[in-house]
Design a protein that fits this description.
5 helices, Alpha-Beta Plaits, 2 domains, 4-stranded antiparallel sheet, Arc Repressor Mutant, subunit A, 152 residues, alpha+beta, elongated
Length: 152
């Protein structure tokens, strides 16, 4: 877990604007929020330096890029090989999220594929063979009701 940085309403307003449109100009953000360009620029640099902002990025539409299938996989690992499993899964490009969790399963994965056949091949040819994986529970997403970045 990272260090908590105390952010105020000005920071939250800036982060909210960026969350809505990461390409917004300082001028437009200033105009919409009533916060001066200089303050926004200073706050952005400070939040970046303090780890509040990890990176500036895009969210591509998965369907438009050919990734039609989203799946969630719950993974049980061998305790002695758990870290190696996490490292191996993190190297699979189609897996976009890997979480260590509590409960019956040890890991929660979110992954993308172009088709159900591709998903099946990914699971059987590249995930199941990883040493230390004991069990998988696969869930295919049929509709994404909400998909956002973390709240600010």
């Amino acid at each position: 877990m990272g260090r908590i940085f105390d952010i105020d309403e000005v920071d939250r307003t800036i982060l909210g604007s960026l969350r809505e449109d990461a390409r917004i100009s300082l001028r437009d953000m200033s105009r919409r929020s009533g916060i001066s360009d200089a303050t926004i620029q200073f706050r952005l640099k400070r939040m970046k330096a303090n780890g509040v902002i990890d990176r500036f990025t895009i969210m591509a539409n998965p369907t438009a890029t050919g990734y039609m299938v989203t799946a969630i996989i719950l993974v049980q690992t061998d305790n002695e090989r758990h870290d190696q499993v996490v490292e191996a899964l993190a190297l699979v490009p189609e897996i976009t999220e890997v979480y260590e969790i509590l409960g019956e399963y040890d890991l929660f994965l979110k992954l993308w594929s172009r088709s159900l056949d591709d998903l099946n091949a990914l699971i059987n040819d590249r995930i199941r063979p990883i040493e230390g994986i004991e069990d998988l529970h696969e869930i295919v997403v049929v509709e994404r009701a909400k998909d956002e970045t973390s709240p600010v």
